[in-house]
Write a structure and sequence with these properties.
The protein is α/β, with parallel strands linked by helices. It folds into 2 domains: about 170 residues, Trna Endonuclease, Chain: A, domain 1 (3-Layer(aba) Sandwich); about 120 residues, no CATH class. Helix content is about 50%, strand content about 15%. Strand 8, helix 12 and strand 9 form a beta-alpha-beta unit.
């Protein structure tokens, strides 16, 4: 049951209103959009192979196929560049050939025996024609990597919010003697899943913290909201308290399941509320105080 007295609210309605009024509109920091160092690293890893293939930009179309065969024979590793040109990470690509009505598998791992197949793929997929329109293959692939990196934004969003919460927790615990925060695997929540953060007293866990940010709606946050009620009860049986720090405008359209969790759990906070209340929770929650006192 929500501990309104410790959080400083006179009613659940006041607590609920405060939560929804202070939800963050976004967690997208400047480094959310593109991971430039990762992109540069990936391009640099195959820079030599890219530069070898770049010679195709200088060849007329009628000579390009022959030159590609020559390059593949002499430098087999350039085959690894070809999937990247069409924004594919895999070194094996399956294609339905609408002429033969067969599924063909192309292997882009470096080897000599499939050169004709590789060249045929480059011809039919338009890669050979691409060299009519670009001047520098490295610049082109750098652009492809920027596009592919957008697929990682979802994971990056979660990591960024975790970092924001970690900074808040470290700041709040800085002057609290004997307390520390760790993101190491300390408190196990379920098989292969540990709490995002654990606050410890003299290296013993007293508080588990789970963190997530939802920009939109979906079934996952609803299921998370329901499951955390039982999770808190399980942790309490192990004398570990629980705080769920969740944020994002997505919750405004998923109020019902979240409100149920807010009623039935001790602490459901957004980031702004966590900044205001973490020290109070650690200093005044009777179960947490008792756990700390037993560790002296």
């Amino acid at each position: 049951m929500v501990k309104l007295d410790i959080l400083g609210y006179e009613s659940f309605d006041e607590y609920k209103a405060s939560f929804f009024e202070t939800l963050a509109e976004t967690n997208r920091t400047y480094d959310y959009y593109v991971d430039w160092s990762k992109i540069m690293g990936k391009a640099k890893d195959i820079e030599n192979e890219i530069m070898l293939m770049n010679v195709l930009t200088k060849k007329p179309k009628e000579e390009r196929e022959e030159k590609l065969v020559e390059l593949l024979k002499e430098y087999p590793r350039i085959t690894e560049v070809i999937p990247i040109i069409i924004a594919i990470r895999d070194l094996e690509i399956k294609v339905f050939d609408d002429e033969s009505f067969e599924t063909k598998k192309f292997d882009f791992k470096p080897k000599q025996e499939n050169i004709d197949e590789i060249v045929d793929f480059c011809d039919k997929s338009g890669i050979l024609d691409l060299f009519d329109t670009i001047d520098n293959l490295f610049d082109y692939i750098f652009g492809v990597e920027v596009g592919l990196d957008t697929n990682a934004r979802k994971n990056r969003s979660g990591k960024i919010f975790e970092r924001m919460v970690k900074d808040v927790l470290k700041e709040k615990l800085e002057n609290m003697e004997g307390l520390s925060v760790t993101s190491q695997n300390v408190v196990k929540l379920k098989r292969r899943k540990y709490a995002d953060f654990t606050i410890q007293k003299n290296s013993e866990p007293i508080l588990a913290v789970e963190v997530n940010f939802y920009s939109g709606t979906g079934s996952k946050p609803i299921e998370v909201a329901r499951s955390y009620i039982q999770l808190e009860r399980k942790l309490n049986e192990e004398d570990i308290q629980f705080v769920w720090i969740t944020d994002g405008p997505g919750w405004r359209k998923m109020k019902n399941p979240l409100e149920n969790s807010m009623i039935n759990m001790d602490y459901v906070l957004n980031l702004e509320m966590a900044k205001e209340n973490i020290n109070t929770i650690l200093g005044e929650d009777p179960e947490i105080k008792s756990a700390q006192e037993s560790l002296f």
